[in-house]
């Protein structure tokens, strides 16, 4: 069951690492560390294999993929020997990358994307395509009346205005081309009523937002710990220092704000109250693709005694994100195949700011994910899973 | 439903903090921060209220309880104003404390403990008593053939040998006197076949071991996080610096060894493999009742990229332990009242080294605990909870 | 040799802690931990004793000093027993505190301050007075032509404009009243040409700026360490989390900016280049008078190998600042007595942003300070110190 | 002025990194980051240039140097491109390495080392040789009467006993062959009366012990900071986690003990009292050549207020050590050339446990070093430096 993975931001760090990793897995040159779909609890027949994934994508930048992979190898993100060994496979993917459309109306650009997707499906005889947004984080969207309704939106897109931010434009194109959509960024993506309606109409699933890879991942287990123990979190302050392309983007206050907001949500929703303290993101070029996050949590125990926990996370964002991109592509494709449409809150496990936000506890998100994937496998095998 | 809480080590830091806290809660002078039985998910009619708890206990040391409470206030463990306000209540508890028995055979000492418990129940017209071991950690037990069998044990206890370590002697006495038993320490307690048989015979429940309050609490959410994300933990090293009475005891290598072993178990069992690295416990007198633990975790992500997480926990052990002691007393009493006997793996949430060790993931332990307590409440209300 | 210490911001945390501490030292109730003038290297006959210090000051706030001291005791900044024991002495100081003048022209307010100082000197038969600014940090000063010249300034002050920021107004009054001036804050103080001229004319010494108590103190030894070892600091990022009155003031971006700038100076000047990274100050009310600073330093060693150092400082700002305020008062008084006037770069040891900034290395500043104080003692004893 | 650098432990991590680095510097392929002799304060005519250094050494292990360099490159200690570019130069050094002598009496082995040194000097027409011990740390030496006196020692060495530990055997051989000696390890080296006498007799300088590269380097600036500020350090606890060859050696308790002792000395001697707490060294294989040290310092400020500082050092030991080995070789050779003999306390800057231990403050050690090197340059230039 050949499945397309169309990456918006295809030459970025996350995309390149995802592609190198999938090719390495296919070639038996690397193991699936970091891929949750390879855990015994999630593995099974419903998911397309790594070998069945075919990559393509859009990017405005034209640096060759092999060049980007070499840069990542020099930075210690991917092993240099893999990049060398996969030269031919990378060249093959290169031929499936397309420039991000520019000029014309937004409707014109959507048409280009739809044509690129359709042609990609035909060329590789794909059963289906998952469009995954891993492009640079956008500023928060400017509200527009046409966001409320598909008809109004279609009309507005044909006009001169930039009605949709790029992420939503890609979501629109994905749905139009019959593809599911995953947003790994905090950008708007499919989160507009008009796009939700479009996905429902076409029977397509979508998931997001903002891959949960670092400080927020740790928060999603520590905050429930304090809650389960009835300890009162008084303050939770954090700082994220990062370089890399994503860091450079986030040096822009508008993009930064979107990101910080999605990072803070987990606390208030898990604890039931908002502790004092802020999360900050600072760009430090020299840190490159490795991010250091430091968090200080002060809390009160029995009879008000003050205590504290601090942690330092030193992670490689792209190496954390890439296997999740592959997981999301596999699960979303299988979910699409199973006939499910609309938002997928069952995939909250992967996101900082999950659509539907059923819970922010990683353990509870894990239970939801297991149940969802188990059902996909059961359906694929024709067996039944009793409803819970 | 007046319920006795008999503390072995009644003048220690944990015991004193538990007593001060329960009296403060009863008097409305403090809230239940840190008490999980007061969370909406666990609150309910099956549990004795704080006002229904009556305290007594054994300790070889004779320092007045009020004096111990003042020392803890000076050290910042409990608020000084509470100790002052509760002077009369503390004096009342003082009259229910008994010296730890000395001399004679172990059977003689057991008889004293049984008599103390029986008299305590009579004096306060208690529905039942929970014996909670919060005394100093012992060295690992020396095996003895009589541990295998109640009859052989009864005979050996009447002889001159020290067949049982103190914790097991108290467990024996508790069961003989018809009391349930909770071990908050890493000591042997009821974990001997002969004692398990005795508990079964008398229809009494018991729980343990080693209250989970600091570094191991954090481990029990972080280790599952790495497991759920299929990240490969390469090393996990930790150091615990602590003063206080417990620290002084742990400066003894034998007691230290028992503690360290119960701390390491969570990793191997959660991850499915044992990462490199050790946990250390060092006594630093000046740190007093506050403990600082530092852990370094190195792990590999996708394609082998190395990353790291480090955390520093700065907690007040007694303030973390005391509310759990109250929780355990309430839940164990209710479980006893519900007619349940034998080991209680449902209480794993509270322990570093839980009996039966169903799982080391805090979130899964929490689910087990909720289910258990929900059923107790349902039974108490005469309603039914559907089996899962 | 009775010496007045006139505190601008006399009811603030630093001032109150300084007063409580000096009274406790005088009464033999506390030792001189944190006072560098009591180190063997600096102790000697030129310095007024603690018993010879007499306190007074201005503050717009009217909360009684004893009340402020109790608040600090409750927050763990000073021991409660000292505040209780010193009630009478605190009441005596209370009678020497004056409201900060309001209304009228700046010349009017200066006249009030001068009168208060003169009266204070007369009332207590003081040999001299050191005015120490420990009031809230101001925003950066707005340039004004009258700052350039004493005559122009005198004229402008009589007009309706707010020509001088409060700190400079106090410095003006101090010099006019024949007092030396120390600025423990990052505010402007005496750093205007007109004020420098005034000090020179009156033969008065002054020192500042911004007491070096936390993160910057650590920086002032770590940055020279990297320099001495020829290690290349690539980035140095820091975050300061603090509550308290000072924290609340710094939540204001303008005050924050002044402070951050004085914190960053040490790096560029010590290393000879400016590493990447910023210092941030965030207000977290719940942290109260204790500040947590976290710094991450990334550096390159031989052949470019990347390494890192991170530190967390958890300090009580007022407890760090107060003994330095006493040290500064003693040394500045002795320097004044020795006939020295103008700025005192020899006191760089105490400041984040030292006037004259001879060096930012703590060890070199220490050598300068020792030499200065040794000479004061030698002069006081009539012996000679050979020039170096 | 060609100068030999004879490395004992020539195939170890420190030695290999030193050689690769010196060759890279000579070839203009790398800059002198980490080399203090290239700082403006120390640079000058007395020191042999990097191009004038010629390397040789002993090691019992026979792994080719190029192989060791590749292993270090794979571990991220040295850049792989340097190792590739320097293949020929490494092969040249390879031809000057000799197996560590085995068998026979200690006198026989000394004779082999002396012959190897003499032949090395002749072969390369060296002005002089510095023998630098960078071999594995030994256990503490067993006292022997012959250690007291050169004559007794000479006699004992000819007998069957292992009178000297290996480091001292090399020091003996070095002095016998007219070479100066530097010990970068905590081993005994020249620290025996008989060896001191031998060095004096031959007019040879020597220096040591134990290169100061990580936790102790930081201690040597932080401890003076606390002392200069009259802050009372209550406890200082540390843990060092390291892999690599050195880590494997230190997993042996005897070697560990020697190292820990040399690490603790700095505190007691700088502060004037010994704070509570210990330093630990743990072997964690997976950390490889990178070491993580964590230290917790608790201290009291004014009026006893408790505060804390913690730091995490994450350094590459060999990359920190290697430039210092080159610095020591250059300075010791120049000191030898200047006619100085005996122990060199002026080189304390480089060592955890400096011979003569004039001070443990890095800043004061820096002043001593500057003065020493400035005089060497002045003498080399025929100018005079006024005595201080
Ligand atoms: N790496 C992580 O751990 C992580 C976690 C959560 C979210 N994310 C998000 O993933 C995204 C990618 O991160 P990255 O580190 O790869 O960043 P990156 O800067 O390396 O890559 C972004 C790519 O998007 C491209 N791009 C920009 N605008 C585009 C457009 N309109 N259409 C198509 N492509 C466009 C850029 O040219 C670039 O190649 C970011 O939004 C980031 O916030 C990453
Ligand atoms: N505080 C925590 O967070 C925590 C967590 C897990 C386990 N624990 C365990 O709880 C226990 C108590 O800790 P603590 O800090 O109160 O220690 P502590 O030293 O303050 O108190 C122990 C008390 O036990 C008494 N005791 C010693 N031998 C006894 C005996 N044979 N019979 C009766 N009493 C005896 C001592 O006299 C002392 O009063 C320790 O075993 C500790 O390991 C504590
Ligand atoms: N504590 C430290 O470690 C430290 C270090 C460096 C600098 N400082 C500086 O010391 C100053 C005092 O700090 P704090 O923690 O005591 O702050 P605080 O807020 O507790 O006290 C400041 C006091 O100044 C008074 N004040 C405000 N405006 C005034 C005016 N015009 N005239 C006279 N008094 C005035 C306020 O009423 C208040 O009582 C701040 O500027 C701070 O930045 C403190
Ligand atoms: N790297 C640092 O930061 C640092 C700092 C201070 C001290 N040191 C000391 O430097 C020494 C070297 O460290 P390393 O990391 O290179 O260790 P390593 O284990 O990589 O190298 C030691 C070498 O010594 C050789 N050796 C063992 N016995 C010998 C003998 N009798 N004669 C000659 N060679 C012998 C070994 O075969 C090995 O090649 C250690 O003693 C270490 O404690 C290192
Ligand atoms: Na830390
Ligand atoms: Na840290």
TrEMBL record, chains A, B, C, D:
InterPro entries membership: Myo-inos-1-P_Synthase (IPR002587), Myo-inos-1-P_Synthase_GAPDH (IPR013021), NAD(P)-bd_dom_sf (IPR036291)
Residue ranges annotated for the Myo-inositol-1-phosphate synthase GAPDH-like domain, each copy included: 214-318
SUPFAM superfamilies membership: Glyceraldehyde-3-phosphate dehydrogenase-like, C-terminal domain (SSF55347), NAD(P)-binding Rossmann-fold domains (SSF51735)
Domain of life: Bacteria
Pfam family, one: Inos-1-P_synth
GO annotation terms (biological process): inositol biosynthetic process; phospholipid biosynthetic process
Signal sequence, renumbered to the chain: none
GO molecular function, one term: inositol-3-phosphate synthase activity
PANTHER family: MYO-INOSITOL-1 PHOSPHATE SYNTHASE
UniProt family annotation: Belongs to the myo-inositol 1-phosphate synthase family.
Protein name, UniProt field: Myo-inositol-1-phosphate synthase
